């Protein structure tokens, strides 16, 4: 009997009928860990359900997803109710999810969280340790797989944005058991180059297992101890690794890292042109101001007649000298007048001046002044002091003067 030749469509349709008619596969409960989770704009959910040995693609349509009581995410352990069928276009069987409930986090996510908490307590994520990226690095080190899409995107965008930059590529393994050691060695090697100013560490997207090398503690510590600032560009926008938290800057994707590390060449040139115009304008304005200031100085009275100021000062000194002489002369005159008046007052009080007016001083032989007739007797010797000498004489008669007659005359 001749075997009928079937088309690919007929084969896939047949397999689909077998799967959907199987009493076990049409209503099953499966436990596993979510990986590669994606919420489509249509509202459908796509992800992979896995255990340590196998994985199966899953889809949950919007009509069922709207009734979810949990928020699915990568690493979450779940129990799923659904059925197995075939996606005819790709010839791939998948699990169509009708219900989902949480069963806890997977082992990798637990390990991720434990390491994250430990390193955070040590301070490896602290902002104070983050190094600043250079504005326009002269040389960039790129640590990634040499065959992945990430390196092609990085090179394409960097060369388009800033063609004159120098790049050094350090090829590494980005997944697998040897990937962490390969990345650490590349970071250490980069740091031996004095001219490398910034490092981009990255790879394309993937599951948590595929990205696990960037969650290793040795890689985190190598990033932290790098003297060169590092941009972590691992996976897609929703992917977070330990490397992202330790790095100086986190880029959402490798393409985003290429845009972060360098400005647009056109933007830089435009900025330089604007600054050049501002500088020229400022210089011309300053020159014009200084020229005007110079003209003002040249026309200044003191600049045109510099000796006039000296002459003014000389004249001022002459006037001061004249005033000083006048003041000195007046002071001398006043002092002479004061001295003359003082001498006259002193002369008026001088006893000798009294003698010159005919007065005399009478004393006894011992020199005691005689002020009254009661102090002498007849035949007693007295001494009379005159202007040019003295006379020793004897009292012939003592006669008292009558004061009453003088009062009557008055």
Automatic annotation (TrEMBL):
Its EC number is 3.1.11.6. Residues 124-341 form the Exonuclease VII large subunit C-terminal domain. InterPro entries: Exonuc_VII_L (IPR003753), Exonuc_VII_lsu_C (IPR020579), OB-fold_nuc-bd_dom (IPR025824). It holds the Pfam family Exonuc_VII_L. GO terms for cellular component: cytoplasm; exodeoxyribonuclease VII complex. GO terms for biological process: DNA catabolic process. Residues 6-100 form the OB-fold nucleic acid binding domain. GO terms for molecular function: exodeoxyribonuclease VII activity; nucleic acid binding. Keywords: Cytoplasm, Exonuclease, Hydrolase, Nuclease. It is an enzyme of class 3 (hydrolase). Its main location: cytoplasm. It is found in: Cytoplasm. It comes from the Bacteria. It catalyses: Exonucleolytic cleavage in either 5'- to 3'- or 3'- to 5'-direction to yield nucleoside 5'-phosphates. The keyword Transcription regulation does not apply. Heterooligomer composed of large and small subunits. Belongs to the XseA family. Bidirectionally degrades single-stranded DNA into large acid-insoluble oligonucleotides, which are then degraded further into small acid-soluble oligonucleotides. This is Exodeoxyribonuclease 7 large subunit. It comes from Clostridium aceticum. The gene is xseA.
